[in-house]
Design goal:
The protein is of the alpha/beta class and 373 residues long. It folds into three domains: 94 residues, Immunoglobulins (Immunoglobulin-like, Sandwich); 109 residues, no CATH class; 118 residues, Glutaredoxin (3-Layer(aba) Sandwich), CATH 3.40.30. Helices cover 43% and strands 21% of the residues. It contains eleven helices and twelve strands. The chain has a four-stranded mixed sheet, with no helix packed on it. A four-stranded antiparallel sheet has the order 3-2-5-6. About 2% of the residues have low confidence. Its main location: other. It is found in: Cell envelope. It comes from Pedobacter riviphilus.
Amino acid sequence: MKKQLYLLILLASLFSACDPVPATFNFETKNFGPNAVMIIQSPENGETLKVENITNANQTFKINIPVKGYAILKTEDGDHKGEYYFYLDKGSFKGVLDGKNINSYPLKSVPNKEGEQFIDFYRLKDNMSKNLLDSLDIVESEFDQATQSNIMEKAKNADRWREKKILFQLDIIKAFAKKYPRSAHTLFLLEQLGRADSEPKNYLSIFNSLDKEIQESKKGKSLLEEIKQANQMMAGSKMPNIEGENPDGKKFDLSILKRVNLVICWTSYSGKSRKNNQVLVKLYEKYKNKDVEFIGVSFDKKRDWWVNVIKDDHLTWPQYSDLQGAKSPNAKNLSNYNVTYFFLVDKNGTVLTNNDLSLDFVDSEISKNLAGR
């Protein structure tokens, strides 16, 4: 009888150990519309962990989680959307979701120190960015009320302030990293901001302020590699060598470079690349006699596809490929695996533009660099 009792106790403890302890959320929700929802997602893979209708009342719900990690709390209320990072773990989360104040961080009480650091990050953000957000609200309002005669001016002004807001995030992350040099949250926040390719110097400055253990973590090494990659493609840097050969079997040589050169990273099987080719053919006709060269670098693997598209799309500028696809050194060194990708270099192979150019700006950037050199 005692053996059976012990066995039951053992089985009960095993089942209890396997049952994940939930994360419990208690929110006061207010000032949302009738169809508003809150969503909790994983930023790693986009998996939706919970969706709840917002009731403008006290709401409680649970998430059974086998492991802890980063998560995003989102609110959607028509065109009004909020997004907040937090650290998901077992235990109790308490907060306030206010539809009239979506800039305010909703979590007020969390079960761990990792979560408390996020509360502090958003507190820093509120204190540092109030004036900027007020200015952005003003220019957004002016843009909404723009007339046909001034809409372009108001749109450009709004874009400038939106860019300021994005760049200001780096100042906030920098302040957080200074306060918490041993926190891996800085790596996560930099990764989510996604500006390593355009702000590598700022990223490196923040990275170097972190504790050595954080720098040498798996995520730290990955971010550092991304920063180094971006740094070598900044204006003033020397373009990495283009590997491979042209369709006639000749290797790339710097001697083909002209005063201004557009490097085009593409693939024959990309629908976007094929559409871009239609625009590029016309641009090449405009500039080919003005000391400008286009250079195509394909990340293809099949020679027939590559050569046939060059012919079919009437691409008359120099083309190179090592036919290694995504494993090509070109893919890593020139565009950090992005397709399509554009940048300008001068006759010495010195990069003229910081990172990827939008096709919409290729024409104006070529003209600007021709005029300034």
